[in-house]
Structure formats: C-alpha cells, structure tokens
From TrEMBL:
InterPro entries referenced in this protein's UniProt entry, alphabetically: DUF1176
Protein name: PF06674 domain protein
Any Pfam family: DUF1176
Source organism of the structure: Leptospira weilii serovar Ranarum str. ICFT
Amino acid sequence: MRQVFRKMISYRLRSKRFLFSLIALFCAISLFFAFYLIEGNKILFKQQERNSFHSGFKRLSVVWPGDCEYSARPPEDKEKHPEEICAEALDTLRKQLPKDCEYNELALGEDGLMSYRLYADFLGRSPVQFFPLSEGKFLGELLCLSAPYNHYNVYFIYDERSVPAKTKILTFPAFNFEEKNGFVHMESFESERIVRFYKPETKEFIAFIKYRGMGDCGEYFRYRLSEKNRPILVEIRAKLECDGKHSYSAEEIPVEWTRYAEPFRFSQLLKTQVWWEGFWNLR
C-alpha cells in the first residue's frame, strides 16, 4: 500500500510540475508575441514618420479644382505644393469611398472609379467642398448618392499639415426604426453616407431620411464633431406613419415628430470618452 501511495503522490507531483511548465511556457510565448507586436508597431510608426513630414501649410480655404490639382512644373522643382498634395489625397480618397455610392457612368474614369472632373461636368457644379476646421485642416464634403427625395454625402477630414496629407472618412451612428405590437424598436447601425448636408454656421450634420417626397414621415438625426473629430449623435426624431400630417422640408427641424433618446448599448461602455466629449460640447 505504501508503494502504491508513494507512486500516486509521485504521479501527482509530476503532473503539477508538467502543468506549471505548460503555464510557464504559455506565459513566455505570450510575452514574446506581446514584445514582438509592440516592437513591430514601433517600427511601423517610425517608418510612417520617416515617410511623412510636417508640411507647414496653413491654408484656411480650399476651393476645388484650383486649390486642389496637379500643375506643370520644371523637373528641378522638387518642392511639394499644397495644391498637389490635395490632389493626391483626393485621388486616394476615390478608392476609399463606400461601395454603395452610386455614380452615373458618365462620371466614371477609365479606371472605373469616380472622376472628379467628369462628375463635375455631369453635375454642372463642383462635387466636392471643403469647410475649414483649423489652419491646414478641413472637413470635406462629397456627393455620394442622389435619389428623387433623398440625397447623401460622404464627409471626410482632410489634414494637409503633413505630407502626404491625411484623409479619413467619417462614420455616423444611426438607427433603423420598426413598429411592432404597439412598440417602436430601434436597431443601431453605422454609415459613411447617411448625412444630407452640413451646416457650417452651427457646425452640425443633418441626416433627414424621407419615407416619401412630401416629408410627412421619416427619420431625422443631428450630429456634431467632437474635439477628436468623431461624429456625435445629439438628436433623434422619427415619424413612422405617413398620414399627410406634420410635413417638413429637408432644411427644417421636424419638431412635431417624436423625439427619441439613444438606447443604451453595452458598446457605449467602450466609448465613454466620446460620450463625455459630446456632453461637454452640448453645454
């Protein structure tokens, strides 16, 4: 019996040692990969720093196309000009546009992407606008989709203070509405092309989605930018019944429509900073 007992103890000790060895090996591998990722990110960040430099550009206005196009220069002129880095940024932006943007075939270039020049000829006006945010930093607006009573723009941050210039398409939180058994259900989603227009005088984005042309039903969202240039949803209104009452144009606030509070979501716990930015912006 003693020998059997000793063997059992010895087996348990070996099992514990083996388990501890596995845990130690797992920790070592985890630390190695963590170190590898951190160092890799540092190298990537340094590489990005080497590939970009401070431009010193402090423009307060950009008007397409004159302020945002390539120009003929002698080969010895290697200096970067703001018009050229803007043209390069817009060219890169074409490849980042939402897939559900709809452009007439007359606006498409040989590469199958939207051409600003051809699109301007088709519209009879400039398809892109810039609103100043600070020196060398702008909010860009580009028409994405135009329907009979709704149209949608894409908005992006354009920062030409570094070369190459930085562009970032904004994503807006919104909700789909559905009435079931007397209750209105709201389902959240995010979109890059839901906003109808931007109001520079109030620095607000307006999304007015009409269910039909007379504007007696639909959804209304109002946004502001946080200090870190994140869209913050500050007002939600909707009217689901198209009954011919309380009609509004897209430029009006549908004050007689039901106002909804944004439902709490678990993901909001991860966005506390954005929430606080929005809170203080409203004060």
